[in-house]
Amino acid sequence: MRDAGLEVRSDAAGNLIGRREGLSERRAIAVGSHIDTVPNGGRYDGALGVLAGIECARALAAGGPPLRHALEVIAFANEEGARGSAWLFGSRAVAGLLEPEEVGRPDEEGLALADRVAVFTGGPNAIDGARRPPSDFRAYLELHVEQGPMLQALGCPIGVVEGITGRVSMQATFRGAANHAGTTPMDLRRDALVAAAHMVLEVRRLVLDERLARVGTVGQLAVEPNALNIIPGVARVALELRDGSDEVLAAVPERIRRSAEAIATRSGTAVEVHHLGTTRAVPTSPAMQAAIERAAATCGLRTYRLPSGAGHDALAMGHLTEMGMIFVPSAGGVSHSPRESTSAAACVDGCDVLLNAIAETDQLPVLAGEN
Ligand code: GLV
Ligand code: MN
Ligand code: MN
């Protein structure tokens, strides 16, 4: 990092922060993304934005125009929400958006996120120390792979993000009766997995037929005792629904609860429904969209405005400061898969636009005082 002129520290949430001071402003232009990944994930989701941030700091240290603002390059911790934990963990800790309940909830190994983080931060209550005030920042910029098919289909090298989707995540636990698979008559069964299977289809129906949200997914299923010859006694379904409208998302938890309870009644099971959390949708700042477009024009690159259906650290940072996001094309629109790919040339384009967008942001009116 020394050739990038960054002083590096880690904070109480496990984020890595490299900072260099500016000519006159204490507020920082922050750039970054995350370095964790999903199971069986790709090499670009997150890592590209962190490496591009370091590369921009390097270019600036090697004789780029001096910035009025400080520059921070941030590698956020646990953006994806490993082990069923809170997503955007590091960036939401910085933005003060973590709920105590999320941090204290035990995961499938019985450890809470607070305990896991305490291993390297010095105590379970330390996470709050990662929180930053809005007055620390001028803006946040993130370069990321699109993770969808639009830019490639349009033959457009740079996406300018208009806003980032919100998300509701929930868990429904169906409890039936574990029993012998060979001796229990079909009409006497209380099969928790059959109930869960109905729930999987219900989430799809609610989105397609009732337009409950833009998309809905059941991505995780845990079955107990999970043996070939035992009727499942417990089935845990983790699901999420996403939409760009907070109003739409507000109606989701109650609707899912009603569906789960109806399925439980029909299948002779009991159900507990937990609303794990709602992340509000965040629009991108118009000034930052314009700054990115000017940056792309300087690089001779065409742009296309599009919403982000994926969540990003920029979503959390957008609660603290003006945020802008740059997308580069994903081959075949594939992401969260080892087949994820973006050409080296496209990554370089994104990095050039990020560097110019930092310079453009530095020229925006400086903000005074506390926010
Ligand atoms: C993060 O990658 C998400 O959108 O799930
Ligand atoms: Mn991801
Ligand atoms: Mn990502």
Ions and ligands: glyoxylic acid, manganese (II) ion
Low-confidence parts, pLDDT < 50 over ≥5 residues?
none
The largest sheet is: 9 strands, mixed
| Radius of gyration, taken over Cα atoms and rounded to an integer in Å | 23 Å
SSE-based structural type: alpha/beta
CATH-assigned fold name of the largest domain = Aminopeptidase
Tally of domains: 2
Order of helical and strand elements:
EEEHEHHHEHEEEHEEEHHEEHEHEH
**What value does the average pLDDT take?**
94
Strand content: 25-35%
Number of helices: 11
CATH architecture of the largest domain: 3-Layer(aba) Sandwich
Instruction: Supply the CATH class of the largest domain.
Output: Alpha Beta
Shape: elongated
Helix content: 25-40%
Strands, total number: 15
N→C terminal distance: 31 Å
CATH homolog superfamily of the largest domain: Zn peptidases
Notes on the structure:
- This protein is of the alpha/beta class and 371 residues long.
- The protein folds into 2 domains: 2-164 and 281-362, 3-Layer(aba) Sandwich (Aminopeptidase); 166-279, Alpha-Beta Plaits.
- It has helices at residues 47-61, 89-95, 100-104, 113-121, 150-154, 192-208, 246-250, 252-267, 286-298, 313-317, 344-362, and strands at 7-10, 16-20, 25-34, 69-76, 137-145, 158-164, 166-175, 179-180, 215-224, 230-231, 234-243, 270-279, 282-283, 303-308, 323-328.
- Strand 1 and strand 2 form a beta hairpin.
- Helix 1 (47-61) crosses helix 11 and helix 6 runs antiparallel to helix 8 (252-267).
- The longest helix is centred in the last third of the chain and has 19 residues, at 344-362.
- The model has no long low-confidence stretch (mean pLDDT 94).
- One manganese (II) ion is lined by residues 34, 45-46, 79, 144, 312.
